[in-house]
Amino acid sequence: MKESSSPLPCSVAFETNTGLMPQATAHYQKRLSDLRGLFLDPAALELRIRAEGDPVCYENFAFNQNQAEGDIFFGTTIIYPGKVGSEYHLTRGHYHRKRDHAETYQALSGHRLVLFEREDGTTCTAELAPGKVTYVAPFWAHRSVNTSDVPLVFLWTCPVEAGHDYEGLGGRGMRQVVVERNGVPNVEDRPRS
Ligand SMILES: [Fe+2]
């Protein structure tokens, strides 16, 4: 990137409680129907799609002024509360196309967790909570899960060249799932089908 054509510094406003970012340069929503194949209970998913008019599961606002290597982009993700069967609302989950690129998450509202896994099958979780920065280390696929009854809003920051690889998870989502057991969230291995 040439210095003469580089973006100008600026401050970008967002709403802490809702994640709304009026100056976002990109925005998308994922409805439950967009997440077919990811939840443990497809019948429960279809039931909710029909009964509730295909509600939004999560949405994303992003801000970026250019795609040059070395720049970053950042934004907010909002995961609305809810469950499909016993499984809590989640994001699709992805590896970075450039596996050695990292990211950070910072929860603004709500308090939940991130599922991680590596291509060698290793898994772990990390807390996503106000007052903490979650480090999404290189080589780890990541999915956020809202186990609360309020929207989970978090800020993310990532190198523009990291890219998203949704296919690396084989279309099945993550190896672990977060389900309600006896009224509390529990992280379990995905049942083998
Ligand atoms: Fe990412």
In terms of DSSP E residues, the strand content is: 35-45%
Q: Give the mean pLDDT.
A: 93
Give the strand line-up of the largest sheet: 1-2-3-11-6-9
Molecules bound to protein: fe (ii) ion
Shape: globular
Oligomer: single chain
Count up the helices. 1
Helix content: under 10%
Order of helices and strands: EHEEEEEEEEEEEE
Let me know the number of strands: 13
Report on the architecture of this protein:
This protein is mainly β and 193 residues long. It is built from one helix and 13 strands; from the N terminus they run E-H-E-E-E-E-E-E-E-E-E-E-E-E. Strands 1-2-3-11-6-9 form a six-stranded antiparallel beta sheet, with no helix packed on it. Strands 8-7-10 form a three-stranded antiparallel beta sheet, with no helix packed on it. Strand 2 and strand 3 (72-79) form a beta hairpin. The longest helix has 11 residues, at 42-52. It is globular. The chain binds fe (ii) ion.
Summarize the structure.
By secondary structure, this protein is mainly β. 6% of the residues lie in helices and 38% in strands. The strands form four sheets. The protein has a six-stranded antiparallel beta sheet with strand order 1-2-3-11-6-9, with no helix packed on it. Strands 8-7-10 form a three-stranded antiparallel beta sheet, with no helix packed on it.
